[in-house]
Amino acid sequence: MELTAVIEALLIASEDPLSSSELARLVRARVAETEDDILSEDPAGELPAELKALADIDESAVSLAISSLNASYEATGRSFLCSERAKGWKIYTRPDYADFVRQLFPGRKPSKLSGPAMETLAIIAYRQPIAKASIEAVRGVSCDGMLQKLLDRELIRIGGRADLPGRPLLYETTDLFFEHFGVKSVDDLPNANELRTVKLPEASFDNDSPPEQGAIEEQLALTSAGIPLADEQAL
User: What is the pTM of this model?
Assistant: First the structure.
């Protein structure tokens, strides 16, 4: 029994993504269960060779098996692949077939975020956790409406409070954000290392005075990272 086939079966059967560690655990659990059944019937019994080979698999073995699966899918021109997101691995249809897949959902039209919403989301994604005043210091305008829109779409959430005057709320991205934009973590965002260390304009937590316009325009370069829109992918 090939590990690639076992993992493929697990990913197809599961409604939720599965991490490499969880996939390895499930395989080992099945082998252990089979071994217990054999020994209960015959104390001298042994596992079949094909199961013995799966008894000690780990995350690296799972990753290698998934790479082999994807290579096979690519070579045979399949319309899907295994892709890892924040919550784990899942089988997705390729973006090339998105227009066909959308025919299954005629009532659901692709929805794109507005420019201001994308700017706000980009700042949060790269600098999370971040307070509203800090976001507004970058954008130079009030972002209450944009924050509410992103909260409603469950792309961001409140991640706590800052240790600052007034204890302002801190915003961060959700697992849905990573799923939506096809990345595993903040480190996978375009130019993440550079943009996460760029000095931001100083935010005022005591008043609403706006930052200097030059600093604002410089920091709006965050949005040039080009995060892809989710409706360009077939999920």
Answer: 0.67
Structure tokens, 132: 């509203």
**Residue 57 is inside which H or E element, if any?**
none
Nearest CA-CA partner of 232 in 140, 121, 89, 95 = 95
d(CA 193, CA 10): 35
Look-up: residue for tokens 């897949």? 101
DSSP secondary structure of 180-231? HHT-SSGGGSTTHHHHTTSPPPPPPSS--PPPPHHHHHHHGGGGGG-PPPGG
Co-location of 49 and 137 in the same domain: no
Domain enclosing residue 31, as ranges: 3-104
Tokens standing for residue 87? 């919550």
Over residues 36-49, the pLDDT tens digits come to 888 888 888 888 88
Q: H helices of the chain, where?
A: 3-13, 20-41, 49-52, 59-75, 98-101, 115-127, 132-139, 144-152, 175-181, 192-195, 213-219
Separation between Cα atoms, residue 89 and residue 43, nearest integer Å = 38
Residue 110: inside a domain: no
